[in-house]
Design a protein that fits this description.
The protein has about 90 residues and is an alpha/beta fold. It has one domain: Leucine-rich repeat, LRR (right-handed beta-alpha superhelix) (Alpha-Beta Horseshoe), CATH 3.80.10. It is about 35% helix and about 15% strand. The chain is built from 3 helices and 4 strands. It has a 4-stranded mixed β-sheet, with no helix packed on it. A hairpin with a 4-residue loop joins β3 and β4. α1 packs parallel to α2 and α2 runs parallel beside α3. It is globular and about 30 Å long. It starts with a helix and ends in an 11-residue tail after the last strand. The mean pLDDT is about 80.
Length: about 90
C-alpha cells in the first residue's frame, strides 16, 4: 500500500495523506518523507498512531525543511504534533 501511495505523490489532485494507525514505523515514514521532498500539492499529512521513533522524527524534520507546501502534520501518540507553514514549529510529546 505504501508503495502505491508513494507512486501517487506526484499527482496534483493528492492534497492530503491520512495513514492513521497503519503501523508504517520509521522506515515507512522515511520513504514517504523522501517521496514528498519536492511535492508541491500535499498540504496535510496525518501519521497518527504509527509507532514513529527517532529516525522517523528526523525524517519528518528534514522534510519540513525542504517542503514548503505542507501546512499540517499530525503525529499524535507517535509522540509529535506539528502545524507547519514550511518551518518546523515545534514538537509536542503526548
Amino acid at each position: 500500500m505504501l508503495r502505491c501511495l508513494i507512486a501517487c505523490t506526484g499527482r496534483p489532485t493528492l492534497t492530503s495523506i491520512h495513514l492513521l494507525k497503519n503501523g508504517i514505523g520509521d522506515s515507512g515514514v522515511m520513504a514517504l518523507a523522501t517521496a514528498l521532498e519536492d511535492n508541491t500539492h500535499v498540504v496535510e499529512l496525518n501519521l497518527r498512531y504509527n509507532n514513529i521513533g527517532d529516525q522517523g522524527a528526523i525524517a519528518i524534520a528534514e522534510l519540513v525543511k525542504k517542503n514548503r507546501a505542507l501546512q499540517h502534520i499530525y503525529l499524535c501518540t507517535s509522540c509529535l504534533w506539528l502545524t507547519v507553514g514550511g518551518l518546523l514549529v515545534g514538537w509536542v510529546f503526548v
